[in-house]
Amino acid sequence: MLRRGERTQTLPGPAQEAPGAYGPPMAASDPSPLSPRLSPSVSPLVWPAAATAGGLGRRQLLQLAAIGGLALLAGCRGQGGRLLACRGELPAAWSARLPRPWQSEQLDTPEAVIAARARASLLQLGDGWATDLPRSSFEPIGTPELLARLAPQAGPVSRLFAPQGAPILAFPWSCNPWVLLLRDRPDLQRRRDEGWNLLLDPSLRRKLVLPSSPRIAMALVDGDPERLRQLRRNVLAHDDRHGLSLLLSGAAEALVLPRPRVVPLLRRDPRLSAILPETGAPLSWSLLLRPAASPTAPEPAREPLEWLALVLELPLLPQLLSGGWVPPLPRLQLERAVAPFPPALATLLLPPALVLERCRDLPPLTAAERSGLQALWDTAAPAA
Questions:
Q1: Cβ distance 265 to 342 under 8 Å?
Q2: Rounded to 5 degrees, what are φ and ψ at 235?
């Protein structure tokens, strides 16, 4: 049955990429293939050595009592929350600023984040993973003031693609088009005007790695059966986890992945080049969501709004951009933010307006749409 993501081959060795950027496992017939965890931030009150070594004056006792009273008052105001994210899916510079007494925890896969959501106050998930869960899995997130600062394109995904007027369930802090990453292929880079049709080039036969999601693959060729058949003939692997290892080792020469995974590589590896076609690209979104509390759980912590706002402004915004994370801010604000970057990188971070208009969300599928895409995928299977 067609779902929105699957690794169709498991390769040996350590993972080099964050797993599944778009959705949970999805049927596919091909046989081919950070931020540090923060420690708890509430420290016990440590009394000075003099307090046990000898007597204290009245003034010192009053000072220490005041300190203890403030600490007790802070504790009574509520517990700190827990933010769960998949490793590599939350910028380290941002998670390191999470205010006390909040804690951040990085898990290995989106599946692990979803499985642990009962003990979380906030979750970081891609839109494909979030929309695969029932809407009742989440509570409205209290970020209307922040959403008002974003571009209109963030509106539908903030509702998890429900109609306008539905509750806001997500804070969409980064918009991530899928891009084509090439290794030592200046000839294809010079033909960038061909866009996603470059994936069909005969020279990429068994040299191309696509995402684990067949839905992404079908979107790259606009669902055209013949082009999809050609595309699948070129595929070495559908692999989110190890695709980058295949590219860097030379086993593959082209890889499709979200922009945040591309930008840091371009800054340090001259063999690599990236293309965001002028015809646009499928979009994925990085979301923060508030999981629904269980009836027996304590009152969850409220969202740290000041911390959430950091991704939209200086001094953190340039650090996010340098990692490929681009908040969906109004264009004029982003133009100022990317101005210090080299022109080629600035264009990748903020493509021309027409290109962005051609980029497209992948909202949840109806049962009929899912069945139709499954049939298209099966029909386009390459001959053995």
A1: no
A2: -75, 125
User: Which CATH number is associated with domain 176-282+363-379?
Assistant: 3.40.190.10
CA 300 distance to own-chain centroid: 24
Beta strand extents in the chain (DSSP E only): 82-86, 103-107, 122-126, 138-139, 170-183, 208-210, 235-238, 254-258, 272-275, 283-291
Residue 293: per-residue pLDDT: 82
Q: 137: which strand partners? A: none
CA distance 217 to 278: 17
> What's CA 336's distance to the chain center, in Å?
23
User: Position 164: which residue type?
Assistant: Q
Q: Quick one: which H or E segment has residue 317?
A: helix 316-322
CA distance 3 to 1: 6
The Cβ of residue 82 has, within 10 Å, a number of other Cβ atoms equal to 18
Query: For residue range 34-78, what is the model confidence (pLDDT) as tens digits?
Result: 222 222 222 222 222 223 333 434 444 334 333 333 332 333 334
Burial class (CB in 10 A: 0-12, 13-18, 19+), 121: buried
- Tell me if residue 358 falls in helix, strand or coil: helix
Query: Which tokens belong to 375?
Result: 């049939």
Crossing angle for the helix pair 367-379 and 225-234, to the nearest 10 degrees: 60
Torsion angle of alpha carbons 121, 124, 128, 129, nearest 10°? -50
Average pLDDT along the chain: 82
